[in-house]
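Dig into what follows:
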Amino acid sequence: MEEIRLDVQLRNEVGSRKIKKVRRQNFVPAVVYGEEERSAVVKVDRRTYERITRQHKGQNVIFHLYVVDGDKTLGDYSVIVKEEQHDPVSDRLQHIDFNRISLTKAIEVKVPLLTKGEAVGVKRDGGSLDHVLWELDVICLPTQIPEGIEIEVSSLEIGDSIHVKDITLPPGVRTKHDPEAILVSVVPPMKEEPVGVPEEAAVKEPEVLKEKKKEEATAVDGKAEKAPKKEEKAEGKAKEEK
């Protein structure tokens, strides 16, 4: 992996108000750490930095940083991005931490895992490819950092997995990851459960409500039986009048 030149300016502005002014001028405040040297407080041209990161999205980029103050170059060294801070609402880049490195000393970085092909357990049997890990921690020289580690998944059937021990790392690259750790696996399709209410879960009518309905029915039947008696009394009264 080759270095990318990045010119940064020495930053004299400190404090939240002055930092806001730096951002309004379309710079990103940054700090350079590491290699047992004094930290450098700098600012990076936003457009230049974001253009480079877009071109190398998802990759570990090695910058050759040139720290300038006006027309003077105060120093130059190799760095990688240690951390970026983004606004939680707008996702706009707010701050960068760079880490000084030596091109002759191995460093530990995260490298993306890239799958190749379509698993037979997915294509033929309707399973799903489960990414247990999306990145792998590797140790190597900065110039040997791979852009990604490719995993061939075409032969995987349902229940098959690929472990760390199953992959071949590029020359000069090693990992401290557990060899038995699963990277990807093919899981069976999800079964659709029938939608319905089990008989046991059916809502039973409360006993009190049953008794009440029973009493109401009895009362209605009682009134029905008494009705003819009133008619009989009326007929008797009519006969007496005659």
The helical segments are 16-24, 46-55, 120-123, 207-241. The mean pLDDT is 84. Residues 4-101 form a domain with the Ribosomal Protein L25; Chain P fold (CATH 2.40.240.10). The longest strand covers residues 72-86.
